Amino acid sequence: MNDQAIARRREVDDLLSGTFNSILRVEERALENRLTEGLTITEIHTIEAVGYRDENPMNVVAARLDVTLATLTIAVNRLVEKGFVARVRDEADRRRVLVSLTKRGRQVYRAHHLFHQRLIEEALADLSEEEEAVLCDALRKVKGFFDRQAHAG
Question: What's the whole-model pTM score?
C-alpha cells in the first residue's frame, strides 16, 4: 500500500469516528428541550423503535434496536415510569407484551423525526444529485460491513 492510500485510510478512520461523535453531540444538543427533558439519547431511540402509532410486541422493538428482550424491558420500565410509553398484555395471547407511545412519547417521536429530517436536508444541501447518490452507495456498503461485524459470532 502506498503512502497516499495509507493517508486516505487514516482520513476515512478520522471521518467515520469524527462524524459518529459529531452526530451524537448535535443530536444531544438539538434534543435538549422541554419535550425531551430527562431522557437519554438511548431512551429517545427506544421511543423511535416503539413506533408512532402502533402497539408493537416487545420482541419486535428489541429486534429493531438489536438488543435483548431483557435490555429492552429495563428501558421500557424507565419509559413507562417517565410517562412516555404504555405497556399492556396482548388480549389474544397473554404471554405477549405490547408497547405503544403515550401522547408525550409521540411528541418526542415527532421532535426526533423532524430533527433527523432537518439534519439530513442540511447535510446534503451542498451535494449534487450525483454526489448524493455516490454518498448513499458508499454509506450502504460501509453500513453493510459494520452490520456484518456487529452480528459476527
Answer: 0.81
